[in-house]
């Protein structure tokens, strides 16, 4: 079995739209092109729609995408996240946070921090203050979150498409107040355990890379290679949504839409004829760098002709 891997990690909260599918296909192609295995992880710690995880997996298999190794579910791995958090606690890097989302939004920003960044309100409370805050939350039926003490540091990350990514790193949440382990901690632990050393995902997640790289440093884990790929947007320049028309793989297939042809064309390779053609022709250096605008066909047949290409 190959030692290093790329991965796709969808959340089973609903149907994947054509942009999600294209990103997953890119992750597969990039892994194959670089001689890596391709892993699949179901990120089901939060929102879950019954049957969505299997449907997503089935759709990729119908496209001819082959997955190496077992399917991993985050809900089976919560003990690993707890163990990592304990390691950070032992180093004095974790503290309780009693703030609500409204508290954070209304608090003054820390110097040099972007709007909305956590200002460190609970970072240096006294023991007496912490006891009082715990009691306040308990009366309200709430529990504190756990945050990482970062000292508002920066951690540059190199990206295959975007170059150097530098972002302010506030005291990120490790475990939410409802007890759910946070995305940034979970993916770092998962990727290390799955030997994922190549992360290909949408460029809307680029700002998460410095946070995750810092967590890797603190937990003595390898930092993966990152490639944040362009998104697929609607005509208004916003994320695709069901109200835009036929955007899911099932809807487009039913309309006779050439999914492989559109993906290859939209990425700058010309229309692909299928998965093997895509593997043979894929070259990261030729990848189109700008976002693709997708004008979905209407859900009813005959209302308009399905689009043939993206741009």
Briefly say what this structure is.
33% of the residues lie in helices and 14% in strands.
Distance between the termini: 38 Å
Helix run count: 10
Overall mean pLDDT score?
Answer: 92
What share of the residues does DSSP label as strand, in percent?
A: 5-15%
Radius of gyration from CA coordinates: 21 Å
Quaternary structure type? single chain
Unreliable spans are: 302-311
Task: Provide an overview of this structure.
This protein is of the alpha/beta class and 311 residues long. Helices cover 33% and strands 14% of the residues. It has 10 helices and 12 strands. It has a 5-stranded parallel beta sheet with strand order 3-2-1-9-10. Strand 9 (196-202), helix 7 and strand 10 (225-229) form a beta-alpha-beta unit. Helix 6 (183-193) packs across helix 7. The protein is globular. The model is unreliable at 302-311 (pLDDT under 50).
Topology:
Elements: E1 5-8, H1 18-33, E2 37-42, H2 52-62, E3 72-73, H3 78-90, E4 94-97, H4 101-106, H5 127-139, E5 145-148, E6 157-159, E7 163-165, E8 173-175, H6 183-193, E9 196-202, H7 208-218, E10 225-229, E11 232-233, H8 249-254, H9 259-266, H10 275-281, E12 292-293
Parallel strand pairs: 1-2, 1-9, 2-3, 9-10, 11-12
Antiparallel strand pairs: 4-5, 5-8, 6-7
Helix pairs in contact: 6-7
Features:
33% helix; three-stranded antiparallel β-sheet; 311 residues; alpha/beta; disordered C terminus; five-stranded parallel β-sheet; 12 strands
């Amino acid at each position: 079995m190959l030692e290093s891997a790329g991965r796709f990690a969808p959340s089973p909260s609903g149907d994947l739209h054509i942009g999600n599918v294209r990103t997953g296909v890119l992750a597969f192609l990039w892994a194959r092109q670089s001689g890596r295995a391709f892993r699949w992880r179901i990120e089901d710690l939060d929102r879950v729609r019954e049957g969505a995880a299997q449907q997503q997996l089935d759709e990729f298999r119908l496209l001819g995408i082959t997955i190496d190794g077992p399917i991993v579910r985050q809900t089976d791995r919560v003990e690993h996240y707890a163990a990592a958090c304990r390691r950070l606690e032992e180093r004095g890097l974790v503290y309780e946070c009693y703030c609500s989302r409204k508290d954070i939004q209304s608090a003054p920003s820390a110097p040099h921090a972007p709007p909305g960044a956590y200002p460190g309100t609970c970072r240096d409370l006294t023991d007496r203050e912490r006891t009082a805050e715990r009691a306040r939350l308990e009366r309200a039926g709430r529990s504190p979150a756990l945050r990482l003490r970062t000292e508002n540091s920066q951690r540059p990350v190199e990206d295959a498409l975007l170059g150097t990514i530098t972002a302010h790193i506030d005291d990120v949440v490790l475990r939410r107040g409802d007890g759910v382990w946070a995305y940034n901690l979970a993916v770092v632990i998962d990727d290390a355990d799955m030997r994922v050393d190549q992360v290909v995902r949408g460029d809307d997640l680029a700002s998460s890379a410095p946070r995750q790289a810092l967590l890797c440093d603190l937990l003595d884990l390898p930092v993966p290679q990152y490639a944040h790929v362009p998104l697929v947007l609607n005509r208004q320049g916003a994320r695709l949504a069901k109200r835009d028309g036929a955007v899911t793989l099932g809807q487009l297939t039913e309309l006779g839409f050439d999914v492989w042809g559109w993906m290859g064309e939209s990425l700058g390779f010309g229309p692909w004829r299928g998965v093997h053609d895509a593997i043979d022709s894929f070259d990261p250096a030729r990848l189109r760098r700008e976002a693709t605008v997708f004008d979905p066909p209407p859900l009813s047949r005959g209302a308009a002709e399905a689009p043939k290409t993206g741009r």
